[in-house]
Amino acid sequence: MPEVNRFELVETALKHYKDITMETLLTFLPSKEPRRHLYDLIPSYPLRPGKGLRPGLCMATCEAFGGNVRNALRSAVAIELFHNAFLIHDDVEDGSEYRRGEKTLHAKYGMEIAVNAGDAMNVLSIRPLMENLTVLGPELTWQIFTEIEHMVRQSVEGQAMELGWVHDNICDLTEEDYLRTTLKKTCWYTSIHPCRIGALIARGGEMNLDRFNRFGFYMGAAFQIQDDILNLVGQRKKYGKEIGGDIWEGKRTVMLIHLLNNCTKREKEKIKIFLSLPRKQRLPKDVKWVYSLMSKYGSIEYARKNASQLAGAALREFFVAYGDLPDTQAKQFIYDIVLYMIERDI
Amino acid sequence: MLNKSKKTPKSRLNMTEEDSTTKFQTGGLGSKKGNKEWTGTGAGEKKKISQDVIKGLANATSRVVRQAASILEEEVAAGIVAAKDVEDRLINVKDLRSGKPDEVIHRFRRDAHEVVDIFIDLAHAATQYVGGLAQRVVTIRGSEKGKKPEYTASGQLPTLKTNKAMKPGERAKIPMNLENNSDKIMDKFGFHSTDLVDASGRRIAAEKITFTPSALSLAPYKTQKVIVSVNIPAKTSAGIYSGLIRATKMDQLQAILVIQVD
Lengths: 346, 262
Known about the structure:
Order of helices and strands of chain A: HHHHHEEHHHHHHHHHHHH
CATH architecture of chain A: Orthogonal Bundle
Shape of chain A: globular
Helix content of chain A: over 70%
Largest sheet of chain B: 5 strands, mixed
Strand order of the largest sheet of chain B: 2-11-10-4-8
CATH class of chain A: Mainly Alpha
Helix content of chain B: 25-40%
Order of helices and strands of chain B: HHHHHHEEEEEEEEEEE
Oligomer: heterodimer
Strand content of chain B: 25-35%
């Protein structure tokens, strides 16, 4: 069963990269007061069973380009800390109840404590980047800083765009709007910058990093759409978040945008009213109704098709970004992960 | 800080101090196994996804992928313009590029806090790095003769812009001087542009932008002028529109096009 092994290998490699990231990440957490309301909470999200995609991509790209994975470790840790800070704040903003199979931080400890823990994570991510200075030198450290600055800025801008759609109850959105927001909110920090930073470190700054942009965007967008699909059709135990949570939150997923553009005028008006209500006033039967419309109009199938096409384009771009490198296991991992990401059920 | 994990994962992945390369068994990209369709754990659904992906791979022009490519180019161009704007506001770039970075750095240092000082050291190093990158095979220059190529700190791209603001309905013509600094002939190549976008997302479509000549070859150590023409539609709103010009066949040869419409 070689195919099954290959599936397992991606997960094994992800676990390996995550393990070494976590080991280093934990060394950057202060061991001092205030513990109960701050430092004891910081490892909570990173230690939950996430995939570790971002540090994995960063370190594997570094290896694929002939670099030493240990040189990319601090940057991978910083990316993972930023990611977890985003998740904490994202859960607060969306009012989510579950993250990676457990209660969200704010559901467990309260809003104020959770927001502050997220802030602390953002701050803590700076230290590993500063420590790059001693290992990578000022030139490369500065370049990584500029990559991270762009990554974080794009993410918060994308998040603002998405929150704005929900806040203003915008319902006339197109696929293009979705892709642009996904690029900003997800792709720069999930896939494009981790690859760019890994290669930057491997090559000591001497390369054109734009070769990763398309690969990372297509892969990240496929990943995001698959995440949105799993939110509708996945199993909570495996997926780790509440199923249908995106409908409860009124999140403008590719499925919702497709539905709004394909349903009848009357249905659209009714959906708009549903989306205008605060989350707590939405009823289970209405959430179910929106889901049934998505099924009726083929919105989920449409999203699957888009994810597949984007994943296909990512595989094509893989050869632009990595094609000229020797065949290594790190390179193979990056290739395999594209398919893994859209076939996953977690 | 970067010690090896005490708990070695029970997997085929290993990393040691001597050999930090990750090793795990796989079919390899070049192997037959590596090229097989991946069917996952016995699910027909997954097999179908794989087939769809392979189709997507073959079909490079699916609508969603075309849209994504276009959005990416616009966003990258917008990011480079924004970075240049920040750079211009923060530091006197011309002085740095004219080879007197120490003077500027010294002026900053006088007032800088100790922590900020570290960042300025990094800025100094980055400036030197940018200078190093300026050695290119083919460069683009603005219209002024003898002017050095302009590069931004982030994207190292030159900026092409009109001397004055344009009015809707007018045709902007911007000379772009190309210089081949190598001893090899540059085979026939042309240019294309993204849509020009302003801060509010309004656009001037890419088809309004033409290049004369539309294709050219460049002999060793020769220069040639290409005119970039922009037909500004009559109903264009006032604003600063920018986009990215790229050369065919040469990924590195890019420039930012900026048009101000009053």
